[in-house]
User: What shape does this take?
Amino acid sequence: MFLACYQTVSFVVRCFFYEFRRQLEYKSKYNGNYLLIADRWFPSSKICSKCGDKKQDLSLNERIFKCVYCGHEIDRDLN
Ligand SMILES: [Zn+2]
Assistant: This one.
């Protein structure tokens, strides 16, 4: 009983995310926006949100992101 319920819930969750992604791709294309599908290892914290330069080393205790290329400073969670 539990396994059947788990499989059903798992199927519904996968369908939800498939449809969510499909809608994101469709709406992005329709509105002319760029959509980046990033995997879990995409280094978004290391990439400057202003110029796109990638920082080689960023330790977890560095809370302020400072770009060496353009000088942009921002909280790493907002970067
Ligand atoms: Zn920068």
